[in-house]
């Protein structure tokens, strides 16, 4: 039933030039060509880390597979992404990075750097992270903490600017927090859980500093963050890729930290799906929003973290066992996601015509989804060209909402096939007003209202329609959109979005989120000077200026993981 129907001719970016284009003409180029140009330097080191593919690591697969893997391995050339990141951290200026293209940077860039530096948090004299928001006008809640997920764009900005130390400090400090004993009431959490956030406590009497962390025991709703551990692995790989310094990831404590995170999410149980079962609010959307079950954000981050771990784990006795489990899980996960989470016009029409109450292996409607559960809005929202990974799939329940983070990470991790990646970008272009509007970018679409809002959010006054997590617009998502645009060879889309953001972000003092159908209003309870809005903007800017930064956060498709997809030349029904 679930097959991908993509018009292979509908690739707007197919170009024949195979030269590296000057930046001004860059948007005319196919990004893959850019990736092909070897730029460096410390190639051997990069190679040992990134060349490992699923085919090389096909332990546990059938002997037929293994032989084939060896064959492929011997003739293997570098993955394009092996070349695209200089391992030598390049500093483009301390406070105000200079433009590599010779153009003056936007005046906002200098302001953003200053604001980002003001958000630095120090522990015993060393910078270890950035505070979530520097807004003194509002009650702090927990915005005075360093959030693991929020630090990712900050860390990337520093890496891109040739300042890797803070990222290293952050990785090592959070690793120490992971080893704490974590209890919520009388219940002990898994050893591998990474904190949602931490803060530095100054004791003026004893004149010392300590760290305190929150693993969900103080969070609203008491949910442990599932995404933190994944982001930690993703950032460790970005650090390694950007600096060429493999020694951090090779530390026994980093290897152990990764294994602990992986133990939590690879454990076997009652699951019949390879996706990860989660509680509501365990990720960026950290309160009740109907994202329990198998939310796309977590599944995409899970996939990305598994692929990063595969590149970072040592092939020692302990590492090998995990590598084997990761390889198997990646195969199953990509198949499941690409088949069952994918929605385009053809698939939508199939669901619309589903028979229900089928039994046995021949069932087409495997999860017994009722066509009546299709929401009205989806029929207009779905463009002729385009598609996306839907929010959630579980028995008799498909959440058809579009979520930004999960779809962008699906592109960056190559969970999405190249055709699916193109389709996701096509959809963003055709639904520009809905998803970008007057401020990029919607965290999800559409908002829930009235009865649905009452039931699903539990009457949450912060998550009213078109606000906060319920269809609000979050500037931080700009970096993810930009990275996805660069990877799919569509930088002009990111440029358009950035221009919109630049008309307001600084003037509005870098709000956390915007409200309204078009994102016209500063969010009702949005913090100002929200660090990830600032860092997200900087990362987007730097990535557009120097697309080779993409290598830190993107992984090419593993050719051995080809999905079982049927292609058709037509989108028509
Ligand atoms: C809010 C967001 C969460 C973020 C935190 C700190 O709780 O929902 O994603 O990490 O603020 O900025």
From TrEMBL:
Its EC number is 3.2.1.26. The lineage of its organism: Eukaryota, Viridiplantae, Streptophyta, Embryophyta, Tracheophyta. SUPFAM superfamilies: Six-hairpin glycosidases. Belongs to the glycosyl hydrolase 100 family. It comes from the Eukaryota. One of its GO terms (molecular function) is endo-alpha-N-acetylgalactosaminidase activity. This is Alkaline/neutral invertase. It holds the Pfam family Glyco_hydro_100. Invertase that cleaves sucrose into glucose and fructose. Keywords: Carbohydrate metabolism, Glycosidase, Hydrolase. Gene3D superfamilies: 1.50.10.10. It catalyses: Hydrolysis of terminal non-reducing beta-D-fructofuranoside residues in beta-D-fructofuranosides. Transmembrane segments: none annotated. It is an enzyme of class 3 (hydrolase).
């Amino acid at each position: 039933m679930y097959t991908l129907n993509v018009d292979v001719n509908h690739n707007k970016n197919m170009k024949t030039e195979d030269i590296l284009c000057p930046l001004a003409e860059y948007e005319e180029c196919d990004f893959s060509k850019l990736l092909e140009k070897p730029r460096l330097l410390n190639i051997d080191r990069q190679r040992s880390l990134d060349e490992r593919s699923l085919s090389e690591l096909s332990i546990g697969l059938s002997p037929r597979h293994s032989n084939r893997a060896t064959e492929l391995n011997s003739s293997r050339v570098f993955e394009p992404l092996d070349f695209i990141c200089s391992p030598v951290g390049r500093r483009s200026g301390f406070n105000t990075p200079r433009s590599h293209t010779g153009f003056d940077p936007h005046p906002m860039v200098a302001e953003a750097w200053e604001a980002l530096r003001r958000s630095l948090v120090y522990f015993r004299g060393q910078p270890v992270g950035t505070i979530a928001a520097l807004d003194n006008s509002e009650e702090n809640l927990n915005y005075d903490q360093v959030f693991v997920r929020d630090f990712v764009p900050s860390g990337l900005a520093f890496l891109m600017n040739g300042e890797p130390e803070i990222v290293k400090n952050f990785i090592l400090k959070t690793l120490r927090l992971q080893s704490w004993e974590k209890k919520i009431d009388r219940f002990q959490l898994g050893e591998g859980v990474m904190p949602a956030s931490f803060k530095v406590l100054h004791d003026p009497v004893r004149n010392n500093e300590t760290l305190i962390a929150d693993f969900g025991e103080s969070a609203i709703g008491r949910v442990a963050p599932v995404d933190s551990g994944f982001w930690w692995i993703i950032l460790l790989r970005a650090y390694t890729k950007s600096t060429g310094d493999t020694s951090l990831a090779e530390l026994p404590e980093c290897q152990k930290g990764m294994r602990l995170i992986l133990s939590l999410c690879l454990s076997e149980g009652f699951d019949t799906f390879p996706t990860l079962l989660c509680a509501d609010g365990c990720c960026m959307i950290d309160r009740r929003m109907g994202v329990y079950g198998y939310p796309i954000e977590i599944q995409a981050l899970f996939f990305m973290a598994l692929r990063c771990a595969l590149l970072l784990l040592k092939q020692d006795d302990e590492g090998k066992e995990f590598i084997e489990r990761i390889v198997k899980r990646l195969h199953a996960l990509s198949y499941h996601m690409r088949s069952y989470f994918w929605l385009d016009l053809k698939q939508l029409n199939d669901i619309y015509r589903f028979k229900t109450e089928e039994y046995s292996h021949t069932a087409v409607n495997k999860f017994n989804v009722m066509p009546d559960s299709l929401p009205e809005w989806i029929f207009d929202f779905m463009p002729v060209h385009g598609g996306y990974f839907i929010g959630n799939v579980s028995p008799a329940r498909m959440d058809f909402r579009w979520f930004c983070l999960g779809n962008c990470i699906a592109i960056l991790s190559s969970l999405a096939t190249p055709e699916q990646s193109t389709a996701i970008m096509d959809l963003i272009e055709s639904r520009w007003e809905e998803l970008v509007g007057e401020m990029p970018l919607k965290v999800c679409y559409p908002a829930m209202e009235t009865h649905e809002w009452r039931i699903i959010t539990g009457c949450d006054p912060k998550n009213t329609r078109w606000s906060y997590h319920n269809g609000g617009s979050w500037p931080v998502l700009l970096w993810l959109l930009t990275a996805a645009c660069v990877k799919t060879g569509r930088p002009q889309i990111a440029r358009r979005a950035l221009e919109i953001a630049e008309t307001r972000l600084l003037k509005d003092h870098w709000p956390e989120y915007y409200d309204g159908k078009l994102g016209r209003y500063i969010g009702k309870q949005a913090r100002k000077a929200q660090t990830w809005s600032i860092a997200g903007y900087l990362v987007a800017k730097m990535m557009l200026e120097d697309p080779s930064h993409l290598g830190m956060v993107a992984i090419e498709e593993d050719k051995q993981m080809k999905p079982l997809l049927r292609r058709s030349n037509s989108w028509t029904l």
